[in-house]
Structure formats: structure tokens, C-alpha cells
Model the fold of this input.
Amino acid sequence: MKYLSFLIFSLCISCGSSPSTNKSGPPVGTTTTTAIKSTCTEADALHKITMLPELIAIEKMIDTISNHKQHVSYVVSTDTIDGRYYYQFQAGYENTFRRENYFNFYVDKSDCSTIKVFEPIQGDIIPLEEWRKVQDQTEKKGAATKMDTLQ
Done:
């Protein structure tokens, strides 16, 4: 019994030694967080998104169909695209029964100047200006198709 208690005591002392460290990084067994340098707050990014003509038009539509009771709703999260951090805004209509998502916008957290949009047909996240060109081409093709069927 004496030997067993001595063995347990020895093991307890040896387990309490100082933690080993990794010379190339933080001490082993610790976690680190990397601060994101951001001059663009979520409120700044949301303001930038709400000023887009596409969202102004959707806001007017939702306001009209809801008799001035509903507005565009936003689901906000963060995402990483090509190693950069973005706020993701899912803009749409929401009521007690369902949520309709109209747009997925991505705003660069570092400066709010880069805005990207999820383009659902190709499944790509593309710059806002490129997305607008795709939208214009799609509308022109749709108008041409309507004219062809009417003739």
C-alpha cells in the first residue's frame, strides 16, 4: 500500500510540470484569435446596401403589397471570399408564414467599397457592376423572346 501511494504521488507531481511551449508560435494548449481590421461596421454596410436602386425598388414593392406594414428584411452573417471577410446580407420579404429571399449581397468588411452579389443562375458570387450587366442582358433576352412569340 505504501508503494502504491508513493507511485500515485509521484505521478501527480510529474503531471504538474510546466506546459511545453512551441518556439514558433503560442504556447501549446492555448488558442489564439486574429483581430480583423475593419473600418466598415455592419451598420455602415447595411446603409450602403439600402441605398442600392435594386433594394429601393424592392422596398417600394413590399411596402405597396403589404399596405405599408412590411419592409425589406435582412439576415446578416459573415463569410470569407478569396481570403477576405465580408458581411453577407440576405435581403427579402418575411412574414409569419415564410421568407422570400430576393438578393444575397456581400460587402467587404475592410472598407465597405467592394460589393458582390450571388448570381443564382451560374451559382457565382460576382461584383455588383458585373451582376447588373448580367441582369440587363437577361431582361433584354426576355423582352426579345416575348416579341418573338407575339409575332
The beta strands are 73-81, 84-94, 99-108, 115-119, 124-127.
